[in-house]
Amino acid sequence: MDTPQKITVLGAGRWGSLLAWLYHKYGRQVVLWNINDEFLQEWQTTRRNKYLAMPGGVEITSDLEKALKFSEVIFISIRLQNFRVLCRQLQHHQFKNKTVILAMKGLELTTGKRPSEILEEFFGKDVRIGFLAGPGHPQEISQDIPTCMTVSAKEKSDLNKMVELCQTPLTKIYPNADLLGVEVGAAVKNVIGIAGGVLDALDVPSIKSYLIARGPVEVGRLIEKMGGNFQTAFSLAHLGDYMATAFSYYSRSHQAGEMIVREKKILESAEGVPTAKTVKMLMDQYDLDMPICLAVYQIVHEQKDPKSIVKVLFDRPVEHE
Questions:
Q1: CA angle at 281 for the pair 234 and 233, rounded to the nearest 5°
Q2: How far apart are alpha carbons 77 and 256 in whole angstroms?
Q3: Strand, coil or helix: what is 260?
Q4: Sequence-separated (6 or more) residues with CB below 8 Å from residue 273
């Protein structure tokens, strides 16, 4: 099947605007939608943000019906905690038979649900669901710096199509059949990102080697308990994304960790902040020991001294590698 030449992107934030720019760059017709707020009005007026200038060929609109009618392929890139509200809006429009690529990361704070579960709750099998994850910064991709990412799909028969939809000369896409593991790994890497920011701000960056070695182990255990593949925690969706979170100053979650130490403030817009609370709920539900994620939860949501993360990691009982 030929790659569709039209796509719609819902969400004009950093990642959504990057996707609109990226797919237009490689020959597709693109409509970029956002709710009608000051943020959208600034986009429509200046057609640029800190990272890129949006080509004139990309239509920017707040008309949801128009955006949905434009294409059968919909990329959604909004904050996960707002996704349920958007799904309610989508119910009032023709949304059946769409191919939906979820380009967002997180777990719903109140339910612990993954993005695909929320979408399926509203639309069942009436839409084809894919999920795009893995390392990538708008600051770099917009400068023609390539990256490798992963995509998964609700139905394994759709996986090759999802790869085709997401692939460009700047984004090498690898398929992964474990949708649950990809979604969970992509969400929890932002919690690890906060830990990376804390350790950098405490001036002990070498301890981030612990995050690389042990972070995927505890996340893999969570994925496995939830019904996914333990090894997915070592894929591009989780461990592969550490360079864009735990080791990158571009990451909001990394910035959140730094801010907690240096400014005693919580960066609420960082994806890892609500995800840490959801992961704590899942830890309790599945009776799991996840020391890194627990330490982040305690620092962010219980105002524990950030230096406690170092003590927690060093006080752990020694396990064979």
A1: 5
A2: 20
A3: helix
A4: 194, 253, 256, 266, 267, 300
Beta-bridge partners for 150: 133, 174
Residues 169 and 184 in one domain: no
Strand runs labelled E in 134-191: 147-153, 171-175
List the CATH number of the domain containing 99. 3.40.50.720
Parent domain of 31: 6-175
124-148: pLDDT as tens digits: 999 999 999 999 999 999 999 999 9
127/223 same-domain check: no
H/E/C letters for each residue in 266-314? Answer: CCCCCCHHHHHHHHHHHHHHHCCCCHHHHHHHHHHHCCCCCCHHHHHHH
Question: What SS3 class is residue 134?
Answer: coil
Sign of CA dihedral 175, 179, 185, 188: positive
Nearest to 291 by CA among 225, 199, 151, 195: 195
Domain co-membership, 224 together with 153: no
Co-location of 101 and 139 in the same domain: yes
pLDDT of residue 38: 87
- CA 255 – CA 16 distance, rounded (Å): 20
In this predicted model, what pLDDT tens digit does every residue of 232-261 receive, in sequence order?
999 999 999 998 999 998 999 999 999 999
Average pLDDT over residues 63-82: 96
Q: Name the token pair of 169.
A: 């000369």
Report which secondary-structure segment, H or E, holds 149.
Answer: strand 147-153
319 lies in some domain: no
pLDDT band of 265, cuts 50, 70, 90: very high
Selected residue with higher pLDDT from 72 and 5:
72
Share the mean pLDDT of the chain: 94
What's the pLDDT score for residue 135? 93
Specify the number of domains making up the chain. 2
* Residue 184 CA to its chain's centroid (Å): 10
Token representation of residue 92: 């009032």
What is the pLDDT averaged over residues 103-119? 96
Q: Calculate the alpha carbon distances from 56 to 13, 31, 115, 188, 314 in Å.
A: 18, 11, 31, 36, 54
